[in-house]
Amino acid sequence: MIRLPDGAGGVREYSPRPARTPAPVGGAPTSRTVFSAAHVVADPYAGTTPDGPAAVDWDATLAFRRHLWAQGLGVAEAMDTAQRGMGLDWAGAAELIRRSAAEAKAVGGRIACGVGTDQLTGAADLVSVRKAYEEQLALVEETGSQAILMASRALAASAEGPDDYLDTYGHLLRQASEPVILHWLGPMFDPALDGYWGSADLDTATETFLEVVAAHPDKVDGIKVSLLDAQREIDLRRRLPEGVRCYTGDDFHYPELIAGDEQGFSHALLGIFDPLGPLAAEAVRILDTGDTQGFRELLDPTVELSRHLFQAPTRFYKTGVVFLAWLAGHQDHFTMVGGLQSARSLPHLARAYELADGLGLFPDPELAESRMRSLLTVYGVPR
After folding, report:
1. pLDDT tens readout for residues 266-301
2. Residue 225 phi/psi, 5° resolution?
3. E-assigned strands of the chain?
4. Which of 59, 144, 198, 298 measures 20 to 30 Å from 20, CA to CA?
5. For the chain, what is the mean pLDDT?
6. Judging by DSSP bridges, how do beta strands 11-14 and 2-5 pair with one another?
7. How confident is the model at residue 23 (pLDDT cuts 50, 70, 90)?
8. Angle 111-63-368 (CA atoms, 0-180°, nearest 5)?
9. What is the pLDDT of residue 32?
10. What's this model's pTM, rounded to 2 decimal places?
11. Measured between alpha carbons, how far is 164 from 156 in angstroms, rounded to an integer?
């Protein structure tokens, strides 16, 4: 038994599950394109400060990407899961993109990389926003990676209305050498993106977003929607031009959105597929056979964990993701870029451990239990 804090000032006893047979490793899913947005591993020996440049353990960071590729998943690099804009600056992100792209080539892994404007500091005008996007797009394309045009805090702050978004994205899409993924990240993930696409009204914003896609369907591989609103995503994907994919970024409703309905389905680009990698890949391979029920039976039970990790304030979900990577043995410490390991409470982490253990996510349950006990000791929880 292990004593876990109950969130009400007390402790409760939990009996860790025995080891389970790991999900089999197979090739990439064929019926859906699936990306895991991957976290970065901090260097715990670096003398950094929360507001200083990120210190990354490159060996452990790249090893985790090889783990995802080995499951048949694609890697979505330098996204918000990698603490982009929350500890990882553009210099760090650029190095991450270069290193991960080279690793992808070496192992034959699929990779797409985030393009933003986070090299800008302070107030910026639309010309500066465009140039910042261009700089990052050029770097991603030079590495041979697919580009993901991420939402820009600087554009949200400087745009005066929908036309500024139409002009900015239109310019970028015209000069992109290959089709890109457009990313709509909601304010629950980043409050600075409130009112993106020129309106705080989501219906109005949706029309502008779709206008961008409709004007350049040959330059848009797909859209990635992270609004945690399943019906809005379904309505969006039904209005996309033929050949433009919808990649769900909904960490609350992903099983039903990936399974789809008689009118279509979503592919996936998800932060929750970082800790769920092997299980998620196996579920989609089951879906490849046409067994939707088997897919749902395997993936539906994971939603409780995902909802827990992504509970408000949603932007701190990265803490739970890295915590589970530590427990699972993918890294030797629970230290994060920018000190973000402190962003979730001990009861929150304890519940994450319990849910992940119940799903059989830990390759070595005894290691996970031992590490959980060590964390509890640091926090003063009595044995």
Report:
1. 999 999 999 999 999 999 999 999 999 999 999 999
2. -110, 120
3. 2-5, 11-14, 34-37, 74-77, 111-115, 146-149, 180-185, 220-226, 245-248, 267-270
4. 59
5. 96
6. antiparallel
7. low
8. 120
9. 98
10. 0.96
11. 10
